[in-house]
Structure formats: structure tokens, C-alpha cells
């Protein structure tokens, strides 16, 4: 089984409207981040979540560019009259749809104590 555009559209409807060429490219890039210690179905799921995260980031950037709104990292709030800014970190701002969190939950298994046996060594 392999991760497909149809599966991506099902799991991440937020990016379903993006062009198929973008989805194919994101899936190809995400293939490099498949957690190899997992069964193939779980590897596919991790690849789909990673591709969804990539596509969502691209979608946000394109939307901001089209609206003429530049997202400023680190600004929590801003007021126009007598300019006032509050800097800080907003929880969940980097992954508002939770795609990367779902990927990370699967990938973490390969980094922290997964008992695996394989015939070929893992190369990073």
C-alpha cells in the first residue's frame, strides 16, 4: 500500500482544494520522512500527515500573499493607534490544524524505545 492523493484528501480536507501537482510533490517530499520502524500502513499514515502539514503551510503562505497580509512571527497582538505590539509564543500557531502533531506522534515511536529488528542498519 502507498499513500495516495485520495487518502490525503480524505484525511486533510483543509488542503483538498490544492492542485494535484502540489499534492503529488508534497507526498514525494514526505516519503523521505516515513518512520521506518513502523508497519507499512502506519508509515503511509505518517507520510500523509507530513504531506498535509507541508501543504497547509504552503496554503497559508499563498493566502497571506494574496491578501497582502504578512504574518510576523512572534507577535501575539498588535494595535494600530499609538502602535502597540505584544511579543510572545502562541500555542498551536505553528501547527493550527494539528497535522504535524499527528505525524510526530507516529514518528516518535521510532526515536524513543521502539523494539525493532531489521536486517539492514538505519541510516539518517
Please give a structural write-up:
The chain is built from four helices and two strands. It is mainly alpha-helical and 124 residues long. It has a domain at 5-68 and 92-111. A two-stranded antiparallel ribbon has the order 1-2. A hairpin with a 4-residue loop joins strand 1 (75-79) and strand 2. The mean pLDDT is 82.
Task: Give the topology, please.
Layout: H1 5-11, H2 20-30, H3 40-67, E1 75-79, E2 84-87, H4 99-111
Antiparallel strand pairs: 1-2
Helix pairs in contact: 2-3, 3-4
Protein name: DUF4054 domain-containing protein
Rounded to an integer in angstroms, the radius of gyration calculated over CA atoms is 18 Å
Major sheet: 2 strands, antiparallel
What is the end-to-end distance? 24 Å
| Lateral arrangement of strands in the main beta sheet | 1-2
**Total number of β-strand segments?**
2
Principal-axes shape call: globular
Strand content: 5-15%
Oligomeric state, counting identical vs distinct chains: single chain
**What would you call the structural class?**
mainly alpha
Mean pLDDT: 82
Low-confidence stretches: none
Q: Could you give the order of the helices and strands? A: HHHEEH
- Helix fraction, binned, reads 40-55%
**Contiguous helical run count:** 4
Amino acid at each position: 500500500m502507498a499513500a495516495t492523493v485520495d487518502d490525503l484528501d480524505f484525511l486533510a480536507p483543509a488542503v483538498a482544494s490544492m492542485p494535484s501537482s502540489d499534492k503529488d510533490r508534497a507526498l514525494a517530499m514526505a516519503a523521505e520522512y516515513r518512520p521506518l520502524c513502523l508497519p507499512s500502513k502506519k508509515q503511509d499514515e505518517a507520510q500523509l500527515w507530513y504531506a498535509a502539514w507541508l501543504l497547509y503551510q504552503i496554503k497559508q503562505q499563498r493566502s497571506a500573499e494574496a491578501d497582502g497580509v504578512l504574518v510576523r512571527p512572534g507577535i501575539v497582538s498588535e494595535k494600530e493607534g499609538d502602535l502597540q505590539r505584544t511579543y510572545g509564543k502562541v500555542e498551536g500557531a505553528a501547527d493550527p490544524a494539528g497535522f504535524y502533531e499527528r505525524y510526530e506522534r507516529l514518528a516518535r515511536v521510532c526515536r524513543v524505545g521502539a523494539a525493532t529488528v531489521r536486517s539492514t542498519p538505519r541510516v539518517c
